[in-house]
Q: What sequence folds into this?
């Protein structure tokens, strides 16, 4: 057949017309449309059965009840539990972002061992066997006290299991990570003679005077405090914030009193001066239920008149006097302290100065006041059978010096550990267990901490995440994350009533992880003898159920158990001091309560500025690293791409030629960091501030390498009265890059 | 030629993981389709049954067919969900509520799904190579012509019925055309 021009055109046109009339183009257009609307990388919500489970958030010590929404086996949402006494339906950003910690890329997925500097997955049997071998070895050498454990908490069954293990093994070196809990416990013990937790009945107060506490920025139990703040507003209450920087709490307060950093304790004594001098204190409480008032009166009347306090604090005398009168004039005034989220224990004198302010107003154990909440006592396990090795080991001094002649009142002094190890030829710690803690990041002076940890022959991390401590450890025995495990939460920080909550496993473990409680029980059993005898439980779950006894059913059903009827003890029964009264001055520590300035470290001529930290609800700065939701939500004045911003007063910035947004090098006696300059009128001239929680080297790409770590730039400032870290800042130098 | 060749090129043929007999199961249960394809307590629709429901009867082998052996050994014993291929699965951009249609409007399953409950075997699943969805959505007929209400499951088919039944298709708030009623 001959194809000519005419038949070719007819064929093409006919074909085109035929195709257009056929369903082919319409069908393909439709398919392509569907294809383009369903890209494989577009996230699609899972379809399935929706269930809700009650649990408790353990990402901070706040103790919030949570309600977890699941679609089939996938956790899709976490919300606050309605009606929960602590958070009543509310939840913070970290709690909401908890799902990302469960499914995120920073999980440790299996037990691991470091071999020639790189991680190898090993079996649980092999990992436990290796730890047991090392423990047996140290014990055989009579060195059980060279084993130490660092834990975020010392309460609840898991912490108690670690502590019990160390005790029966023969080591006194169980160490809790530092926080204001240390100082509040000590303040309550010294003045009231009770081993108790500080609870704040903030919801019923009508005037809250905060000495630098981030009342709405994560102080104590964050959501409880948010709610209390709302209640305060509803009741037309008042909150004043004493702080060198205009924080969010300061901005939301009725009055912001800008104060020279580190001098808050002096202001508290200045207020006491006015209150006592003008007879504005609670005479009933002072006369009948306190002792040492006259001595205290002499100290504050002689030493802290407003003009002297004004010189120390930079707060003028009129403000001091007016504040004292307003505070004393309130029906239920409450003074609180512990800077920011309360990560640094702080100066004991400062805590006592603030606490005695409450005592002057008689709001100890009263509605709207500070309450001594008894420590949880539901854990009653059988007595330990100690062998000789254990007894000898337990008689050795604690490696951190807590309880020694120099630091008789401190329970744990983790801040001293790096120095102790670095100043010894051989590390006094041969094996370190780290559970729910990330000291390599959270402790001050990161370089010294790293150096000390390098000297420890075996560091075993129980972390669920690849945090700084874990990455640099020698072995990882990964715990389940909180949504995969059962655990008791023995208290809610700062909450005024005894409350026990239960974290429940809402999903099966995703990876080859194991509950740390189970791991400790298994290690103990393999060590045999009295150590094995001390752990009679088959599993952690059995131990937990047995420990919670008659509360177990309530906890499983409701998620929490609360002593609803609890009222803090009456003044007549509240004090277990030698005098049986509240002690304004204590024989146990001479210098109290006074103000001895703790100066920021560093040479003033080389480091003309003072660097202070601040906390944000959008950044975590403890064991848990900030999940991506939080980092994404950071304000542009905290982080810009990978640079942290340092707040500088415009006058200071002008003096040093630092333009807004310019890159600068921040130097302190402990380290350097690249930062960006943020002009801010809310910070005092001569003082600069940076956020805590950035500058991670570990975790995932969403967090690592962003900003600088404040802890790497500061040094421990040991409180001479307690031994706790009281650093509130450090001297610094800021220069153009 | 195109009518025959084109569908063969466009769709790949897939077998279901386990041979399933709807008719047989329907005889065993009292509640009809809803015995296995039920509504959950919260009103959501469970869709294709999960292994947990099958295990109620199939913990042990029921009979000695090859399909039963595969099902019990490969899935029940190993606790693995059966990766059923769902003929009526709609693109993710479509929101469809079974409760609104079956409970509220009292429609029969057959109206949209056809008499699948009477089938003795599962037909071959034809997967669209472009969109990834089943051929049953567009319909067997490549020209899109349908004889029964269950022949196709495209948006026009929803609309046909909604128009016929005089269903309010607009948004409750704005009374305008309600794309977001179905496309969330």
A:
């Amino acid at each position: 057949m001959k194809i000519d021009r005419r038949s070719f055109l007819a064929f093409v046109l006919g074909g085109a017309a035929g195709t257009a009339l056929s369903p082919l183009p319409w069908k393909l257009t439709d398919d392509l449309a569907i294809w383009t609307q369903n890209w494989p990388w577009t996230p699609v919500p899972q379809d399935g059965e929706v269930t809700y489970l009650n649990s408790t958030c353990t990402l901070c010590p706040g103790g919030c009840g949570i309600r977890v929404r699941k679609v089939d086996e996938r956790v899709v949402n976490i919300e606050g539990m309605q009606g929960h006494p602590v958070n009543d339906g509310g939840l913070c950003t970290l709690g909401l972002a908890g799902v990302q910690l469960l499914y995120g890329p920073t999980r440790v997925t299996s037990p691991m061992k470091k071999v020639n500097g790189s991680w190898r997955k090993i079996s649980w049997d092999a990992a436990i066997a290796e730890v047991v071998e090392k423990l047996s070895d140290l014990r055989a050498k009579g060195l059980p006290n060279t084993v130490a454990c660092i834990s975020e908490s010392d309460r609840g069954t898991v912490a108690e299991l670690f502590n019990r293990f160390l005790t029966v093994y023969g080591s006194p070196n169980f160490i809790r990570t530092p926080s204001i809990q240390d100082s509040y416990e000590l303040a309550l013990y010294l003045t009231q003679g009770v081993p108790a937790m500080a609870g704040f009945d903030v919801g019923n107060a009508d005037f809250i005077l905060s000495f630098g506490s981030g009342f709405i920025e994560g102080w104590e139990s964050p959501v409880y405090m948010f709610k209390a703040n709302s209640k305060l507003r509803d009741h037309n209450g008042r909150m004043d914030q004493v702080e060198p920087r205009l924080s969010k709490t300061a901005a939301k307060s009725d009055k912001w009193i800008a104060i020279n950093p580190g001098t808050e304790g002096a202001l508290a004594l200045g207020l006491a001066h006015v209150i006592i001098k003008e007879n504005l204190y609670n005479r009933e409480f002072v006369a009948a239920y306190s002792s040492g008032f006259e001595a205290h009166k002499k100290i504050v009347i002689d030493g802290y008149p407003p003009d002297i306090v004004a010189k120390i604090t930079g707060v003028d005398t009129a403000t001091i006097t007016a504040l004292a009168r307003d505070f004393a004039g309130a029906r239920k005034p409450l003074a609180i302290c512990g800077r920011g989220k309360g990560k640094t224990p702080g100066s004991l004198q400062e805590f006592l100065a603030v606490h005695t302010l409450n005592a002057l107003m008689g709001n100890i154990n009263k509605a709207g006041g500070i309450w001594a909440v008894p420590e949880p006592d539901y854990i009653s396990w059988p007595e330990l059978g100690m062998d000789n090795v254990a007894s000898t080991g337990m008689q050795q001094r604690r490696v951190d010096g807590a309880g020694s002649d120099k630091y008789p009142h401190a329970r744990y002094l983790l801040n001293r550990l790096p120095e102790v190890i670095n100043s010894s030829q051989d590390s006094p710690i041969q094996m370190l267990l780290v559970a729910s803690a990330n000291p390599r990041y959270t402790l001050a002076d990161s370089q010294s901490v790293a150096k000390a940890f390098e000297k420890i022959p075996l560091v075993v991390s129980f972390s669920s995440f690849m945090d700084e401590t874990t990455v640099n450890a020698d072995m990882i025995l990964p715990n389940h994350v909180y949504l995969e495990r059962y655990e008791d939460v023995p208290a809610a920080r700062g909450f005024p009533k005894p409350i026990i909550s239960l974290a429940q496993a809402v999903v099966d473990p995703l990876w080859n992880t194991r509950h740390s409680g189970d791991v400790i029980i298994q290690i103990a059993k393999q060590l045999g003898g009295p150590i094995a005898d001390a752990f009679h439980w088959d599993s952690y779950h059995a131990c937990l159920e047995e420990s919670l006894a008659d509360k177990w059913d309530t906890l499983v059903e409701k998620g929490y158990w609360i002593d609803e009827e609890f009222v803090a003890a009456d003044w007549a029964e509240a004090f277990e001091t030698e005098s049986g009264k509240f002690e304004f001055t204590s024989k146990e520590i001479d210098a109290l309560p006074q103000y001895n300035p703790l100066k920021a470290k560093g040479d003033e001529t080389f480091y003309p500025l003072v660097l202070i930290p601040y906390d944000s609800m959008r950044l975590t700065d403890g064991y848990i690293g900030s999940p991506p939701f939080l980092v994404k939500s950071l304000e542009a004045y905290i982080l810009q791409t990978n640079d942290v911003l340092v707040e500088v007063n415009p006058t200071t910035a002008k003096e040093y030629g630092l333009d807004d947004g310019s890159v600068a090098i921040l130097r302190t006696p402990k380290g350097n960091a690249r930062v960006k300059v943020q002009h801010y009128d809310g910070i005092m001239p001569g003082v600069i501030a940076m956020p805590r929680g950035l500058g991670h080297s570990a975790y995932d790409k969403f967090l690592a390498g962003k900003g600088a770590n404040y802890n790497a730039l500061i040094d421990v400032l040991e409180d001479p009265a307690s031994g706790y870290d009281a650093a509130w800042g450090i001297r610094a130098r800021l220069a153009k890059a | 030629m195109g009518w025959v060749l084109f569908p063969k090129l466009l769709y790949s043929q897939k077998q279901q993981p386990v041979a399933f007999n709807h008719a047989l199961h329907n005889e065993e249960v009292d509640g009809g389709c809803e015995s296995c394809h039920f509504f959950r307590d919260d009103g959501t629709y469970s869709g294709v049954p999960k292994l947990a429901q099958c295990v109620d009867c199939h913990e042990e082998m029921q009979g000695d067919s090859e399909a039963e052996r595969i099902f019990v050994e490969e899935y029940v014993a190993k606790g693995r969900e059966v990766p059923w291929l769902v003929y009526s699965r709609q693109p993710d951009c479509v929101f469809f509520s079974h409760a609104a249609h079956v409970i509220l409007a009292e429609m029969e399953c057959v109206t949209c799904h056809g008499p699948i409950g009477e089938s003795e075997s599962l037909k071959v699943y034809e997967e669209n190579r472009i969109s990834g969805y089943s051929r049953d959505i567009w319909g067997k007929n490549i020209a899109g012509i349908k004889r029964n209400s269950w022949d196709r499951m495209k948006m026009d088919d929803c609309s046909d019925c909604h128009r016929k039944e005089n269903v309010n298709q607009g948004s409750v708030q704005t009374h305008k055309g309600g794309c977001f009623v179905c496309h969330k």
Notes: DSSP finds 27 helices and 28 strands in chain A. Chain A has four domains: 5-37, 112-180+377-562, 202-284+295-324+331-359, 609-736. Residues 548 and 580 of chain A are 33 Å apart (CA to CA).
